[in-house]
Amino acid sequence: MDETTVGIIGAVLGFVGVIVGSLLSFLTDYFRHHIATKKEAAYLAIQLSNRLERFAIGCADIIRDDGLSYGQRDERGCKVTQVSVPTFDPHSVDVNWRSIPAALMDEVIYLPMEVETANSQIAGAGEHTFPPDFEEFYEGRQYQYSILGEKAVRLAARFRVYAGLVSRHLNQWNSEKYFSDEKLKIEHIRETRAATYQNLDAVDL
Q1: For 151-174, what is the mean pLDDT?
Q2: Nearest alpha carbon to residue 139 among 196, 94, 188, 103
Q3: What is the C-alpha to C-alpha distance for residues 148 and 154, in angstroms, rounded to an integer?
Q4: Cα separation of 183 and 145, whole Å?
Q5: Could you give the maximum distance between any two Cα atoms of the chain, in Å?
Q6: In terms of C-beta distances under 8 Å and separation of at least 24 residues, what long-range contacts does 173-177 make, across chains too?
Q7: Model's pTM, two decimal places?
Q8: What is the pLDDT of residues 73-124, one digit of tens each?
Q9: Phi, psi of 104 (to 5 degrees)
Q10: C-alpha–C-alpha distance, residues 118 and 145, integer Å
């Protein structure tokens, strides 16, 4: 084998070595980044799912708030809210948001705006309600937070599924069914009330 051939083989082997080295370096960086991103996504899912579940528990407390303190009204004989509205601030969580899909990130970041909208509608209902029961206010409050609670539970479950975490029920109760049942119950009350009003109007005519 002459020197020219040896030189060519050496150059080819050197070039192949550079390619293989670059490829190995790329694959190492890729898998390192993939593993890091997966860990960040799992951490984010744990943090947000727990905060969403706590928010859902707060929503359940709102639904159970009937305006009575140990079954008693206030000194004026009126109902008074006993439970403060829960808050949810995803921006307070120090996580890598790029580690999760954009659609999932959009839903969880949008939830606080939905809470604001719900509170605005509750306040509007409160302007057209009267003591001592403030019926429309409490009904609207319970209805809006049944919707928010159901949404929070479903979103928390999606985070856990995405991160490969075990699904769970809050405090051993089917929270999603609870919120759904409460929402449907209020909707049934409203439909019955509307039908009653229609029948009264028909009688008057």
Answers
A1: 79
A2: 188
A3: 10
A4: 9
A5: 114
A6: 175/56, 175/60, 175/149, 176/150
A7: 0.79
A8: 999 999 999 999 999 999 888 878 888 888 898 999 999 999 999 999 999 9
A9: -70, -40
A10: 8
**Token digits for 38?**
């997966």
Dihedral sign, CA of 19, 21, 24, 27? Answer: negative
% the chain with pLDDT above 90: 48
Residue at 109: amino acid letter: I
Distance CA 2, CA 35 (A): 49
Range 79-115 burial, b when 16+ CB lie within 10 A, else e:
beeeeebbebebeeeebeeebbeeebbebbeebeebb
Q: How confident is the model at residue 193 (pLDDT cuts 50, 70, 90)?
A: confident
Closest to 145 in 3D by CA, of 114, 177, 124: 114
The C-alpha atoms of residue 167 and residue 159 are separated, in whole angstroms, by 10
Residue 185 CA to residue 176 CA, distance in Å, equals: 14
Closest-CA residue to 100 (of 166, 36, 44) = 44
Lowest mean pLDDT segment, chosen from 33-37, 66-70, 84-88, 144-148: 33-37
80: Cβ contacts below 8 Å, ≥ 6 apart: 67, 69, 73, 74
Report CA-CA distances (Å) from 201 to 150, 193, 198. Answer: 36, 12, 5
Q: Is the pLDDT of residue 172 over 60?
A: no
